[in-house]
Amino acid sequence: MKKKAFGIVLLVLAALVLLQGNFGILHFGGQIWPLIGIGFFAYQSVEAILRRHFTSASFTALVALLIANHFYDIFTDSQSVTVLGRSSNRARS
């Protein structure tokens, strides 16, 4: 079953590489390889949730989110704001 799922993932990734920019599929600007790392950490996070290991699930999900934010600029804030949850632009009291 794992080999079949891995094969399907590779086929989908190959289709993304070939068809990006066409048929409404987003163009990643040559940065499609970080999707492998993001997918790996997201998969590890889902596995940890299913095993009820919520601490490791949250950390692996955070790593996947940080990688995605670094390469694809999902959030407009910097990495430190994503991790720490505060902005340096606010007035400190």
Give a description of the structure.
This protein has 93 residues and is mostly helical. The chain is 65% helix and 0% strand. It has 4 helices and no strands. The model has no long low-confidence stretch (mean pLDDT 76).
Q: Which helices and strands appear, and what pairs or packs with what?
A:
Elements (H helix, E strand, L loop, with lengths): L1 H18 L14 H17 L3 H19 L6 H6 L9
Task: Provide a concise account of the structure shown.
The chain has 93 residues and is an all-alpha fold. The chain is 65% helix and 0% strand.
Strand segment tally? 0
Biggest β-sheet description: none
Mean pLDDT: 76
By helix and strand content, what is the structural category? mainly alpha
Bin the helical content. Answer: 55-70%
Q: What Rg, in angstroms, do the CA atoms define?
A: 17 Å
What structural keywords apply?
0% strand; 93 residues; flat; mainly alpha; 4 helices
